[in-house]
Amino acid sequence: MSESAPTAILVVDDEPVMRTITATVLGQHQFVVTAVASAEEAFEWIGAGNQPDLILLDVLMPGMNGFDACRRLRQNAKFEHLPVIMLTALDDQASIDEAYRCGATDFITKPLNIPLLPHRVRYLLRSARVFGELVHSQLALINTQQIAHLGNWSMDAADNIVTASREYLDIVGALTTPVRAGQLLERVHPEDRIPLARRRDELRAGQSYRIDYRLRGRTNPQVWVHVHERGFPHLDAQGRYLGAEGFTQNISERVAQEERIRYLAWHDPVTELNNRARLIELLERDIGEGGVQQPVTVLFGHLANLRECSTVFGHALADAAVRVMAGRLQTLLVQVAHEACADCADAGCFASAKLARYDEDSFIVAFTDAPGENAVRCFAQLMHATLGKPMLLHGEEITLKPFIGIARLPEDAEGAAELMRRAMLVALRAADTEGGDISYFDPAHDREAARRMQIERGLRVALEHGGQLLPYFQPKICAHTGRILGAEVLLRWRHPELGLISPADFIPIAEEVGLIHPISEWLIGHVCELAADWQAAGVQPGVISINLSAESFFRPTLLQTIDAALVRTGLEAGQLAVELTESVLMQNAETARQVIANLRSRGLRVSLDDFGTGFSSLGYLNSFEIDEIKIDRSFIVNLGEDDKRRALVQAIVALGHALGLDVVAEGVETAGQAERLRQMGCDIFQGFLFARPMPADQFCALRLAPESAGGFVEGFR
Ligand code: G
Ligand code: G
Ligand code: MN
User: Fold this and answer.
1) Which residue owns the Cα nearest ligand 2 atom 17?
2) Which pLDDT score, from 0 to 100, does residue 3 have?
3) For a disulfide at 405, which of 133, 222, 314, 426, Cβ 3.0-4.6 Å?
């Protein structure tokens, strides 16, 4: 798999959108992609003689799921070492564990980070190639050994070798036959003498045997020769033991190769450091020891610009940089273990440090000897300085930008894997927000928790007194005529002290503390009243969409609430739509299907919001009977500059239309975006270009104005 040779990737995903997106993105990175919709189709494709270099395998699929597919794949010797990446639901530790158990090489959590996908795939392909080359040479070796290093022999009843081939004599280091029993046993590794004697006893009982044991080397007595031996007894007609014959094979090189393969399974091929799996195992062993929980401190060193460096200078240089970093960290650990700095004066605690490469662009240093606060801080500073020091590679001066995240056991996490994720989170957050060089996991999250309390209490007051929660309306525009087709209701909260609060800030809290349902119930009633009032005044508001969280959507009383509001206000059901996200559908597909059917049988429209951000329910799109998909805003941004994005959006529009759905583009901000989206066939626009979310009376006034006079129409064409 050199960068130039085409690499075949098989994408197995039942969601048409994710499949198309993944295939498109990887296709643009010189991969040859085949995409299929189920595990069954994948096996059919493989059965037809196709051999992928890597498989991206979704976990949740109708029919055979990804776990079972991976297990079945691993049973076939041809795919034993094929890199398989499982796509699991976000942050689901159980799925991740299961993925590894059934033989996955790695996992990627959904929603997919599309731009990172090709990097991740390349990284895995490179590790797999090193592994594959070894396996290959191992197989070649087994074949040649069968010809070259196999000796046969026969033995008398007293275990003396009486006849033997040249190869056998070479292996055991004898010049001629006979080879006396004692003479041979002397050369056998002391630990293997008893097992070998037992096998020979079995011969006397008429049983054949097979055994692996070690012999002292002929030329170099310090080296142990590994042999595999099989023996078959010779019995006379009365069943008396006469002796045996068999063959002995020198398998030293194979054993060495196996050791190398085992080594690679636990180590990073670039730096030869322990890999993540190995570190987790080592730490869990330490933590579990003696039943008492051993304190552990983990320092996660994230190299923020390594990926950029690899894009600019190439993989070889990025690998070289990582190797330099690994070497520097090893040196640093030796240094601190011997000569503690003045501050911590506590060198002992560094002696047991464990260093690993956690991921493509990160290292972990773990301490199990509980260094004090000062020592950790001091080491973190040294680690940061070490990683951030410039280096000269192939004539380029490279400076990496490290961020260190620190987490502790037992304060910050329950187990080793969680501890590392916590430390990673801290480091990544610092890198994303240009935060501090060294950051600690904050177990209390004091400020955040306090703010939550304030919001929760405030929401209860807002619901009781009214007037603080305000529905805003953002018009939805026909992409072809510019007419207002309706609006999406976006809640705003005017907090008496905190000012205007975004729903992105308070809706998640309302969901957590069980306030989302009363809010939704109130909002449904209130919006129906407004729409009915407008109609009574001769204004046609169009279809009004309300966002529903999972908690509200699955609430058994949702339909009663809607029915009651419609009856009370006399509004027609067709005036109302609900917007759901993919994650809502994913929570419980069966129930979701029923609720959707109930809503639509009343005449309400159902819209799928934030489409394309990648959860696992998309594959069931067909069976959900919805009316509309809204392409997530993230796909619309940069539409102008980015060919890839255009291809993705085009694929989503095509898919929507193929399923008979209206396709809405949300977050349309520029005339250029609108023009492109129109060309792609988008049906409906929503975005700042046309109108921002506005208070109810403004929206009513807008509907009242003649279409050509409305300010929003300016954005049209
Ligand atoms: O308007 P805007 O930026 O700030 O909305 C942020 C998020 O809050 C959006 O994802 C939107 O779907 C969600 N949201 C807005 N109003 C409501 C509501 O009434 N109910 C629910 N569940 N979500 C809402
Ligand atoms: O998740 P949902 O699609 O319900 O949320 C819509 C969100 O998008 C709201 O927060 C709304 O304020 C915001 N929004 C609507 N139009 C635009 C736009 O043109 N640009 C940006 N940046 N946000 C928008
Ligand atoms: Mn929405």
Assistant:
1) 667
2) 44
3) 426
